[in-house]
Amino acid sequence: MAFQKALMESEVSEGKVHKARIGKKEFALVRMGSVVYCIDGRCTHEGGPLGEGTLENGELVCPLHEGRFDFKTGAANPETDWVTDVKSYKTKVEEGYVWIDF
Ligand code: FES
């Protein structure tokens, strides 16, 4: 595990889901103030692109079949039981970039 540069900090605005790719690995990021949360970019259901999802009631919603996730922890909402938890990753904001530890 090591921090790797993902996106420019200025690209990551609040209130929106962002996608990042490092090599073949995809991530979904959500910023809240100075903290950026990061979870896997592929849904556990049918691989929907979570980085293209939306935010609703504090949850990240998969764009394909509306599976819901806690973007802080990756936990799936039991009300959408067709999805299971995704992994979450540590991030840091430094030198004008968002870095992901994976
Ligand atoms: S692929 Fe995400 S809910 Fe189906």
What would you note in describing this structure?
- The mean pLDDT is 97.
- The termini are close together.
- 0% of the residues lie in helices and 45% in strands.
- The strands form two sheets. A six-stranded antiparallel beta sheet has the order 1-9-8-4-3-2, with no helix packed on it. A three-stranded antiparallel beta sheet has the order 5-6-7, with no helix packed on it.
- It is built from no helices and nine strands.
- The protein has one domain (3-101): Rieske [2Fe-2S] iron-sulphur domain (Rieske Iron-sulfur Protein, 3-layer Sandwich).
- The protein has strands at residues 3-8, 17-22, 25-32, 35-40, 54-56, 59-61, 68-69, 88-94, 97-101.
- With 102 residues, the chain is an all-beta fold.
- The protein binds FE2/S2 (inorganic) cluster.
- FE2/S2 (inorganic) cluster binds at residues 43, 45-48, 62, 64-65, 67, 83.
Key attributes of the depicted protein:
mainly beta, three-stranded antiparallel sheet, 9 strands, binds FE2/S2 (inorganic) cluster, 102 residues, Rieske Iron-sulfur Protein, six-stranded antiparallel sheet
CATH architecture verdict: 3-layer Sandwich
Helix content: under 10%
Largest sheet: 6 strands, antiparallel
Question: Could you list the spans in which at least 5 consecutive residues all have pLDDT below 50?
Answer: none
Pattern of helices and strands: EEEEEEEEE
CATH topological fold name: Rieske Iron-sulfur Protein
- The overall strand count is 9
Treating each run of at least 4 consecutive H or I residues as one helix, how many helices? Answer: 0
Largest sheet, order of strands side by side? 1-9-8-4-3-2
What bound compounds does this protein have? FE2/S2 (inorganic) cluster
| Distance between the first and last residues' Cα | 5 Å
Tell me the radius of gyration.
Answer: 13 Å
